[in-house]
Each structure stands twice: as structure tokens, then as C-alpha cells.
Amino acid sequence: MHEVEASHWWYRGLRAMLGRLLVRHAISETPVILDAGCGTGENLRFMEERMPRARFIALDVSPDALRHIRPSANTTLLAGDVNALPLPDASVDLIVACDLLGQSGVALALAAGHFHRVLKPGGVVLANVPAFRCLQGEHDQAVHVEKRFARGELSAAFHPAGFHDTEERFWNMLTLPPMLAHRVLTRLRVSSGEPLRSDLKLTPAWLNPILSRWLEFEAALACRLPLPCGSSLFVVARKVVPSFSLVNPIRHNPSRPIVS
């Protein structure tokens, strides 16, 4: 998986979206950025190169995943759960959560509450989630995706936590029709009892750069114009705290230690 994340066209498209929105929504030149569900760190490495003056906190529930990361001097590795973030209140400027919030084991309401708690006023969440329940299939089971989101669904889930300023952007529109056809066919294979397989495999060398460049173009387009559909949904949610807010904050409860 680590090798695939480094080169696969889909991940390159994700980082193209992330890079554009990261620069747009960073509230200072030296922000504190939480990479929630950082995995083996490919997105983290991209962000470290893109924003060398930022301070990063790379958090994942799996210490094994964190051991793959070679952090920069400005990065702290932290074993922890987004359902109970082990971070102080108002300590983070920006949260990146790529393909985390639809995972099994993530309680969306708890995660949103903790995101709001640890963000500074004006802080932003950048979250990529899988879209369209009709795409649910073998791949999702293999990589523990429990939920796919319709437009507006994640924003509605964030609202009770105190996020009242959100925007959503579909991306990966071109590959949506063949992806849907593939997922329907694989459902038939899974029903026969064969082992689960993920769609994420190394793409042929001639095809990978073509699809990568197309998704980079799509990312530029999606950040300017709303695309009507796509296999993924990028959500931007800003913490706006009015003086009369009645949102009940979740208190910080320190848990897991920093990984050395």
C-alpha cells in the first residue's frame, strides 16, 4: 500500500486537490497542521515539502503505520484516535483528514466535536471522503470503508459540532462511469465467496501519468467550478465561534503518548 500511495494516479489527484486547498485555507505562514489518520505518511511528506515553515502533528490509530514515517524536524508523530483526540483545546490551525471519516471505527459526531475543540477560532478542516453509496463494494470492504457520503451529508454532520461555514467539491469525475461498472461487477464476484481485493494496484506505466495529469487538471477545475459528480468529495469546514455559541465543548482528556 505504501508503494501504491506514492505513485498511483488517484493519490496524485488527491494531493493535487489537497495542495490547492491547503494553500488557500492556511491562515498563516507558520500554521500548526494536524494530519488526522496520516497512515504511512505520503500526504504528510507532500505537505512538509509544500509548507516547510508549518508545524505538523501526524496522528494515526496504528503505531505500525507511524513507524513507516520519517518525519521532518517540524513534525511530531502521535498515536491516537480521532474519537478522542489527545490534543489541547484550540491548539491547531488546520486539520487534514483524507479518507478517514468514512472508515469503520470512526464515530463521526465524536470526531467532528474533537476537531472543533482542538481548532483555533477561524481554523479549518480539509476532509476528503468517498462519495455515492452506489460505489460501495469489494474495494470498500477490503480497505475498511464503512460509509460513502452524499452531497451535504458531511456538512450536516459537522453542523451540530459548531461548524457553520462549509463547502463541498466533487472530484474524480472522469473515472466515475467505469468505476461504477467495475464495482457492480465485483459485487457479483464477492457474492460467490471469493477473497476481498482492493482496487488500488499499480497502474500500467503508460497509463498512470495520463490519469495523473487528468486528475491534476480536474483538481484545478474543481477548485474553481463546482463539478456535478465524482467518486470523492472534498469538504472544507471552518470553525466560526460566535460569542453567544451554545455548543457544548468536548473537554480534552490526554490519552496515548507521542511515538518516539
Task: Describe the overall structure.
There is one protein chain. This protein is α/β, with parallel strands linked by helices and 260 residues long. It has one domain (2-239): Rossmann fold (3-Layer(aba) Sandwich), CATH 3.40.50.150. Helices cover 34% and strands 20% of the residues. It is built from nine helices and seven strands. Strands 3-2-1-4-5-7-6 form a seven-stranded mixed sheet. Helix 2 packs parallel to helix 9. The longest helix is centred in the first third of the chain and has 17 residues, at 9-25. The protein starts with a helix and ends in a 21-residue tail after the last strand. The relative contact order is 0.19. Residues 244-248 and 254-260 have low confidence and may be disordered.
Give the topology, please.
Blueprint: H1 2-7, H2 9-25, E1 32-36, H3 42-50, E2 55-60, H4 63-66, E3 75-79, E4 92-98, H5 108-118, E5 119-130, H6 138-142, H7 153-158, E6 163-171, H8 176-191, H9 208-222, E7 232-239
Parallel strand pairs: 1-2, 1-4, 2-3, 4-5
Antiparallel strand pairs: 5-7, 6-7
Helix pairs in contact: 2-9
Side-by-side strand order of the widest sheet: 3-2-1-4-5-7-6
**CATH topology descriptor:** Rossmann fold
Large-scale geometry: globular
- Contiguous low-pLDDT stretches (5 residues minimum) are 244-248, 254-260
Helix content: 25-40%
Q: What is the typical, i.e. mean, pLDDT?
A: 87
Number of H- or I-type helical stretches: 9
